[in-house]
Write a structure and sequence with these properties.
Order of helices and strands: HEHHEEEHHHHHHH
Strand content: 5-15%
Strand order of the largest sheet: 1-2-4-3
Shape: globular
Number of helices: 10
Oligomer: single chain
Helix content: 40-55%
Largest sheet: 4 strands, mixed
Structural class: alpha/beta
Length: 288
């Protein structure tokens, strides 16, 4: 089992042994800083000037449903008061011309999950899933600003993954291969084109996949070789390859510390460039 260290100063993530029932800190004094970081980053400023689409009839909208279980109150408060995802959605609408509306709904689902529903073209972001990863990722945070960032990081990769499903569906993109892998690639590329905050969200996703794999091993869960998702450790290594391939010099420590086998790393720069170019072609007609 790989033990992923998420920063170049080599401070490890630590898995929480208990789930806090509620978090009481009040970090609102730092909300402007984080919102400004996400708004002004280059995350969605990737208009490549390929071919301006004529499909700009829809938009992505966002809705936060009030929580019934107060366990998720802090997550709800941070999402609504920082407006970070509202800023992200605004940037998405400025970037993509869509033929129909897409609703992003943050809500309680009764389970730890997130999914795209093609029947009404909605993305469901479940508070339960966000809270699970917040409890883990925020264990070692030392400031309110760090805590805010961890809440956003816990949801950002998953949100872009589900957005990838939405784009494949409503734009009828001619993808090949497993759709779950394809939209993982979409989320990673979008984030790796951003700044430090967005790249940190990719690290958070890598850790989430590693944690899921570790828990499945400890519980001796049956491995779903037949599943639509790649195995969690495969998803971890695929993201590691993308991160390394986006800047082999910057992330040389991935090889040194065995987060990525050297045999795989040899092809990662070419793989990342090819996947990035493929997404640019697929979405070329839908850029504003």
């Amino acid at each position: 089992m790989v033990y992923f260290l998420h920063e170049k100063n080599m401070q490890p993530f630590k898995v929480s042994q208990s789930q806090p029932s509620g978090l009481t800190r009040s970090p609102w004094a730092r909300t402007a800083t984080l919102a400004a970081l996400l708004t002004t980053s280059s995350l969605f400023g990737c208009n490549l000037g390929i071919a301006q689409g004529s499909y700009n009839q829809g938009e992505i909208t966002i809705k936060y449903e009030r929580v019934q279980d107060k366990t998720y109150q802090d997550v709800y408060n941070i999402l609504t008061q920082t407006q970070a995802f509202n800023d992200i959605v605004t940037n998405l609408n400025d970037t993509f011309a869509l033929p129909t509306n897409v609703l992003v709904k943050f809500t309680e689902c009764g389970e730890e999950n997130a999914f795209y529903d093609p029947s009404d073209r909605s993305i469901w972001m479940c508070y339960e899933l966000i809270q699970r990863y917040v409890d883990i990722l925020s264990e070692e945070t030392e400031s309110d600003e760090d805590y805010l960032a961890q809440v956003i990081n816990a949801a950002l990769f998953t949100f872009l993954h589900e957005l990838g499903h939405a784009l494949v569906d409503i734009l009828e993109l001619p993808i090949t291969g497993k759709e779950e892998d394809v939209v993982d690639e979409f989320a990673a590329i979008m984030l790796l084109r951003g700044g430090e905050q967005e790249i940190e969200a990719v690290f958070s996703a890598m850790y989430q996949f590693e944690l899921d794999a570790q828990e499945a091993e400890e519980l001796e869960d049956e491995i779903s070789y037949w599943g639509v998702h790649s195995l969690d450790l495969q998803r971890f290594y695929n993201l590691a390859c993308f991160v390394y391939g986006s800047d082999p010099e910057e992330y040389a420590y991935f090889i040194e510390h065995e987060y990525l086998p050297e045999e795989r790393a040899e092809v990662c720069e070419e793989e990342y460039a090819r996947k990035e170019r493929s997404w640019d072609i697929l979405l070329g007609d839908y850029y504003n």
